[in-house]
């Protein structure tokens, strides 16, 4: 069943006004009167709806669905600006893997240099990619996409999180393996987690020091060194396994929430 994210409040009937959504519904998918879809509004609740008038692009909401596929924790991925279209790839796949937000910032060793005008266009493009991926993967929310023109603005956001982890190549090289797993075991349902990744050249020693002063913990991601676009996907997969699939840890998380 097709799923669409709809801006605005839930009401009956609902008229679809977004031109791209209308085009996809009634031209690409050729919806007709009586066809059913899943609509997700700003409250993150999925609702079964049927086309009531295809000419007027209106739907009737039939019922609410008590269904959520979101991770038990909010995970924000923050990467130093990478080269090329790597951020597009990360946005799509991170959305499918459950990220709550995808951020990027100008790291010391970022080769890519984006000014405000280019950042605005890129952020708009990434937001569309995130929405498409969220619809495909049946998410309850569309992840927030934020590109920071100034690193200082990004740093101001770090204190918002319950835990901050920095994927650091030097930690991996020295064989550090426990910090990531230990950090995940300490998570409580609803915690806000921030994972920071460097660009192709990694994070500078000055950046690592600044993050640590702010309370971040450096972590290794196993014995292999990953590309900047691979590491966030590894982290999200590990979070999903630890908190959604690992029966022992799932029980621990449930007890913590009771």
From TrEMBL:
Gene3D superfamilies: 3.40.1280.10. Its EC number is 2.1.1.193. It comes from Streptococcus pseudoporcinus LQ 940-04. Keywords: Cytoplasm, Methyltransferase, rRNA processing, S-adenosyl-L-methionine, Transferase. This is Ribosomal RNA small subunit methyltransferase E. It is an enzyme of class 2 (transferase). CDD domains: RsmE-like. Residues 70-239 form the Ribosomal RNA small subunit methyltransferase E methyltransferase domain. Residues 18-61 form the Ribosomal RNA small subunit methyltransferase E PUA-like domain. Belongs to the RNA methyltransferase RsmE family. Specifically methylates the N3 position of the uracil ring of uridine 1498 (m3U1498) in 16S rRNA. Acts on the fully assembled 30S ribosomal subunit. Its main location: cytoplasm. Pfam families: Methyltrans_RNA (PF04452), PUA_4 (PF20260). One of its GO terms (molecular function) is rRNA (uridine-N3-)-methyltransferase activity. It catalyses: uridine(1498) in 16S rRNA + S-adenosyl-L-methionine = N(3)-methyluridine(1498) in 16S rRNA + S-adenosyl-L-homocysteine + H(+). The keyword GTP-binding does not apply. It is found in: Cytoplasm. One of its GO terms (biological process) is rRNA base methylation. It comes from the Bacteria. One of its GO terms (cellular component) is cytoplasm.
